[in-house]
Structures
1.
Amino acid sequence: MENYKQIDLNDYVQTGEGGASLTYSHKTRATLAKLFHPGREAELAEREFQTARIVFDMGIRITCITTWNQLY
């Protein structure tokens, strides 16, 4: 992950929040963006991405575009 693409967050909707990052889903495409909180190393983002890729490649599909506030 040496090259990073610039995006416009106006094209995304925040769909998640956790201790390490905020998650945004694109309004019209199946694309996610994660913004890690200050102080979190870039390696954490790369490890999380690689784990998600391995799970996806195993055939496990998880579809959830819901915020915590929508659940409760």
2.
Amino acid sequence: MKSTYFLLLILLTLSCKREVSLIENVYGKPVFLSSTKVDIPIDSVTINSYDRLSTYIHNNDDYILAYNYMTHALDNFNVNKQTVSHIELMSEGPDGINEILGFHAHSADSVWIYSTNIISLIDSTGRVKERINIPSLNDGVPLIMTNFSICTSKLFYNSDRNSLFFLTLSVRNEKDVFFVTEFSLPDYSTKTYPVNTIAEKDFRNDYGWKQAPNVTYTNKTVIYNFPVESNIYVIDLESGKTSIYGGKSRYTSNEVSKLGPNFDMSGGEKHINENVHFFDILHDPLRNTYYRLHLDGIEYNAQTDFRTTYLSKDLYLMVYNEKFEVINETKLDSRKYNYFNCWGMLSKGLFIAKDNELNNDTDFECYQIDIFNIK
């Protein structure tokens, strides 16, 4: 009888610990979402699906700058005028950019590009104005990528601090340790900010391909979250303090199941499809709100093509106010939108590309997006 009692006590304790690892939501005044369709005609060298992009405003027009891997160029979409132009990149020479792992468009004439251990600043013609070799970073390496199965971690230029920000990965005692590096441009000095979860997690060994945090930025904060859980973490750059907020969905699971380290390709695909995946937090500075997309899990069948199954998953959009209170959660149309990081913030709201391969209404002569806004 005593052994039964202690077993129940242990199970209850473990259950409580799991619950505490996810912060509960606080709800604000609800808002409604509206959407606007924009179709931008494209030319023969423009593609309509991108996984690396950035946005900026020039002369009051919204621009989407997207990396075209087929032409090694930046396709520059004017959303207001519905036109596209191109910034052709050189692969070699003094203006050479041999790869693009991520980039940040600060303005039309100031685009920061990350290649392996090198950050280049180019102008609107593709000319390199500055090139920085990233020094040793406390035994860490920059981790800048937009990978649908691993994480979304972006490069950012902070104009208030004249610094570049990026996620950094270090391996210590056979565990992955993450921190954000602030790289000061005036003197090349660095400062770091720890990136942790509320409950310790072994990302390398427990969660399949979901092995790193999503990280985005404002001039005042670092905002991060993990694909495997619903929590939202915000670092205040002045105080260094980290605040944690609940980001739970009403409709989906809010935590990913564990997968041991010794999995094969089929096991990894099954884990990706059957579990929820939380993407990066996007800040709307004009309305001081935040958006986050996440995918629900779906039943996995090894006989069905992985990509078809993945692109059939349900996509949800959550909106938070300036206090990270939940003010909207909406299930978006299925099999319509791009699930490979083809979204971003415009002055008009959050845009998402509509080039899901299972979307029967895709117009391949246009770059098609929906822009979501609160009202």
3.
Amino acid sequence: MASYTAVLSWWTGVTVRGKARAPDTRREANELEATLLDIPPGTRVTVREGYLVPAVGDPTVHLATVTALVYEPALGLGIDGHTVPREGSVLLGELLGTAVQRATQFTVRIAGPVRADVPALDFQARLLLAERPAAVVTETTYW
């Protein structure tokens, strides 16, 4: 399965890379988030917020914004690997690898002018490992 990053690269015609929008944070999952991740409400999760930008060229050109709510125990990382999701430098798709399954919950085309700084599509998906939720991602792709 192709990752969101790979599909965005294909759609835009450029290789993309991640850029942190805010430092990763840890907090308790609310009731809806807990339901989506199949965990008890109040369980600690990591929130990652970032942009996808061209790998070469102007890093202020935002091709997409991505917010991920990650339940780290589902990642199956060793003790040394638990800092990796919080560093924000490794894209979630790379961290999860090829075993990840994507369960898209919705895709919405956003009305508005077609120009580079305007959102085109909104997505929400659960990323599954061994059929168990590991993350919930919200992605906005720009024209």
